[in-house]
Write a structure and sequence with these properties.
The protein is of the alpha/beta class and 312 residues long. It has two domains: 217 residues, Rossmann fold, CATH 3.40.50; 70 residues, Protein-tyrosine phosphatase receptor IA-2 ectodomain (Alpha-Beta Plaits, 2-Layer Sandwich). It is 35% helix and 29% strand. It has eleven helices and 14 strands. This is ABC transporter ATP-binding protein. GO terms for molecular function: ATP binding; ATP hydrolysis activity. It holds the Pfam family ABC_tran.
Amino acid sequence: MAPQEILRFEKISKSFGSKRALDSVSFSVMEGEILGILGPNGAGKSTMMKIAAGTLEPEGGSIFLGGREMWMDYNARRKIAMVPQEHSFFGELTVLDNLIYFASQVGAAREKVAKYAAEFSLGPFLGKRAEELSGGYKRMLNICISLIQEPQIIFLDEPSVALDPVIRSELWEKIIELQKEGKTICISTHYMEEAQALCDRVCLINDGKIVALDTPDNLIKKFTISQIGTLTLKNPASAPLLCELAKQMHDTDISLNGTSVILRYRKKNPQLHEKAQLCLRTMGAEIIKSRLREADLEQAFINLTGHDLKGN
């Protein structure tokens, strides 16, 4: 069965003063998918999520949930939960008291509190003040609070920011489990690894506009070459040397960055990188470091926008 659309953005716009945060953004979210919203800080990711969650009103455009316009249907808006970067709990209360309080606000049974506390490894900390939790478990508590209302769609705003690798890996596992339970999940991130590891599709956003939306594999195939080689030389390469290298290396784009020769191979073949090294050595160049890596989402983003996910 083909995936069904569950949420649709139509020409959503939002400005803050003279800054255009979102510029006529349109796209669809499919039921049961993990959709990544990937872009640098200030690209419009958080603004998009706040509008979807109903905490920020757009200047123009509409959002449809299950074919119905959200702004006209309060019950529809309750089917979406937003997990912000900021802590959305009471720091002076215990973890258990926070969960009980937020459950009471949506009429949820106490059983749900126990269920989500166990699923998100909060059981040992129920009697602890929320402000005393580590950054990772504060993030887990944020997610638990959002799940108590049993949303269909969960927006996670930069969920892995400032988390250590162990907690980040645990959080990724929890997100995948939520998808298996039938939740639709949207993740904003500027971590390429997170988008590639978790997401069924990725929406690349830059300066408030969507520049591409597809599966990670398709984005890499469409907007990057196959492999990227870096050969760092002892001395800067001369123009004649680069010209001769270009003649011998077919299906390869060659550029220079300081003393490093960057080779973008259009075909996946490690022997091409070996050939490039042999060519340079034959011409008298001394290679002090060699690296070959697969093209990735960040390279696709760079090719589309001219800068990386840090905005450089």
